[in-house]
Design a protein that fits this description.
about 120 residues, mainly alpha, 4 helices, globular
Amino acid sequence: MAKQYSPEVLALRDRVKLGNEKLFKAWQQIRELNSAEWSYQMELWYQAGKKLNVLCIELNLKGYGDCLYLENGKKTKSCLDNADGFWCQVCPSSIRYWDKELMSLGGANNEQRKITS
């Protein structure tokens, strides 16, 4: 049975989710800038990320510990393998989905990752 959250918590979750998406889009734009503008915009991006992290902590404190992209028990967005290169800036999940996805990728270093995890 899916955990039920208050409207306040769901609104905060949606705000954090939107923040993740905005920061990713900003990062895509920033990486195309020249060096002088890049430094300035990266500082703004970094500060916005710190604020989003505080909201994510608040979300955890209010009892939310799921993936932002979990709907009806299924993830709608992968942590690592998205066509657009998306990744979450913050993650309130108590389950380390990204770690599980990384381990399922396989590859030459997979055995070493298992040993050091």
